[in-house]
Write a structure and sequence with these properties.
Elements lengths: L8 H18 L7 H10 L4 H15 L5 H25 L5 H11 L7 H15 L4 H17 L4 H4 L3 H13 L10 H10 L5 H25 L11 H15 L5 H27 L3 H6 L1 H22 L10 E6 H13 L6 E5 L1 H5 L3 H11 L3 E4 L2 H9 L5 E4 L8 H6 L3 E4 L2 H9 L4 E8 L7 E2 L3 H8 L4 E7 L10 H23 L6 E3 L3 H6 L7 E4 L14 H4 L5 E13 L4 E2 L5 E2 L4 E6 L17 E4 L2 E6 L7 E4 L11 E8 L2 E3 L1 H7 L4 H6 L6 E5 L22
Parallel strand pairs: 1-20, 2-3, 2-10, 3-4, 4-5, 5-6, 6-7, 6-8, 8-9
Antiparallel strand pairs: 1-11, 11-14, 11-18, 12-13, 14-17, 15-16, 16-17, 18-19
The protein binds pyridoxal-5'-phosphate (PLP).
Amino acid sequence: MSARTRRPALDRFRLAAAVMVVCIHTGPLSSVGDGWDFWLTRVLARTAVPFFLMVTGYFLARSGWKNTGRFLKKTALTYLAAVALYLPLNLYGGGYGPLEWGKKLLIDGTLYHLWYFPAVILGVFIAWGLSRLNRSAALSTAALLYLIGLGGDSYYGLVSSLSGPAAFYEAVFTIFEYARNGLFLAPLFLLLGAAGVTLGRAVSLTGTLLSLAVMTGEGFLLRELDWPRHDSMYLTLPVCMLFLFSLLLGRNRGEDRRARRLSLLIYLLHPWSIVLVRGGAKAVKLTEALVDNSLGHFSAVLALTLASALALDVLRPMRPSPTARAWKEIDLDALRHNAEILQSRLAPGCGLMAVVKADGYGHGAPVAARHLQKSGVSAFAVACLTEGIALRRAGVRGLVLILGHTPAEEVPLLRRWRLTQAVVDEQHGAALNDAGRPVRVHLAIDTGMRRLGIPAEDTDALVRLYGMKNLRITGIFSHLCVSDSPKRPDRDYTRTQLTRFYQAADRLRGHGYDPGRIHIQASYGILNLPPQPCDYARAGIALYGVGSSGAADGVEAGLRPVLSLRARVVCVRTLRPGEGAGYGLDFQARRDTRLAVVSIGYADGLPRELAQNGGRVLLHGQSCPMAGRMCMDQLFIDVTDVPQVRPGDIATIIGQDGGLTIRAEEISRRCDTIANELLSRLGGRVGQVVRQESNPCGSIRRARPGNADEPNS
Ligand SMILES: *Cc1c(COP(=O)(O)O)cnc(C)c1O
């Protein structure tokens, strides 16, 4: 979209609408004449709030009401902030009783302008519900509600003389302070906005002007008759809004986020400006110019409001776009899918323990763990204390097991964050016990890997550990070291490891000790062994849809890669035959060549040798070879055969583009490593975006209930 065609009419009208609300609360023309002020603030400016409701309905409907939850949350938070902002004024005014606070907060708004927030929240609930009916049924219901509201608003004089309706509205007014609320006013405008009607330009314009004229007549007539109890709603208003919104929609190109933010700030801040202008004017003895003169008052309030809105906008938190340079894309649906597949390979009663060490193998541990938790996973494993704390801070509940060594000095932190610690040998257990406070542990059992653990056959040591009073032993586990190998001797070794493990557990039972939760399989143990009689299986790499060894072993099991890695093309150069490029001029052009420079390098975690070992990336759905030496922050690719490549294009280093895919396993094979290393080394300056289509709720079976490991469950 070129700059010339950008014309964000909707967002700009938000500013106008916010200024209209300021008008309503300051009466700019009242010094000029009552009639003029009435026309401006009680007729024209009555389009402002319906407009805000219509834009809300318009955007929610365009997302298929999918963003409704997020919108409601954001609105509720904004409202709470506004309530806090105006608390001093409430308290200065004497405050409310507890019951009245509740009513104000939930229904009428805690200050005069804040009624909009509870109204839009209730209105969106109703409109969203109605939107599931067919459109005309929804609109007629909302119109009926509006008509009922009219009777309690501008047409109150008409109905209040009749005893039945009068009693009805009395009842309404014990709940709502006004009829312009979330029940009667908001649903109609939200749904009119959702309908997104666009008429021709001439029709919209004529319609807007004519209906405004009629509404002016209606307003003045009702004023003459002295019918209004309040004057937010007119019979003509919905018609007028339909034309006005269509006029704006027809001219709307692009968006202006700044106008959006400023209009909200103007709306929120102007009552404080009114208070400050009044107080300030008194202090400097300018009451006549800044308060009594209505135009002076309005201008001062608007200027102060605008100045503070602009200042707050400049100071707002701003974050760089994660996709500006190089980024990971995390597919949460694939993560959940993999968890379901792995879970389905376990014995009944055996739960998945998600291994999210090394920042979730580079996938972002908090995001991954939170999503798995929503899907029903209730046990997690990390490598060290800081990773465990990070999970708890991210809101992860249930078992969090630290698989690596944690020194006994850290026992207070283990306790504070309710982490379960692996005991890596007897000495470690004794040190933890000597720290003097109870700590929850799983005993690591060495069944042949010889890395961590108490030797499986050393029953005496195990029994001694069970005798240590500060060790709350809630499980034992071991780790298999050749379960990924199909070779006969390796399979025999794995069987020996399993036997040693189960025998150790049995001997403990024989001594009258409960081994607690037992677990031994990791990813390859799940993929290559039959279901085991365990309580957990610890899945790491397979959860991320990747195989450790060169082959993409997970493909057979139906696992899907969770991570993609992408980066931007920053520029494209042309080289003549014989010209070189990059450090050492390692690349030499043999023909007329176009080289694209991509903004990712070895400092982002890519192996430096990849460029010389046949590395490639995907661009415009085609495979392009890397060229020359990889730099710390950039790499070259040869795009001679993909002429449409431009700066800003997205290069895929891992993942899918069009019909082609590059897997992490391919890269690790080229660089003589395993995908675990490649993924876990992806650097911290690489951005991250998360994709999720479906709703994750509780699809994964839990481990057997009554889990002593889960302090929160
Ligand atoms: C890393 C680790 C796992 C997970 O291994 P994967 O092969 O990635 O599934 C399981 N258990 C222990 C003890 C580990 O260190």
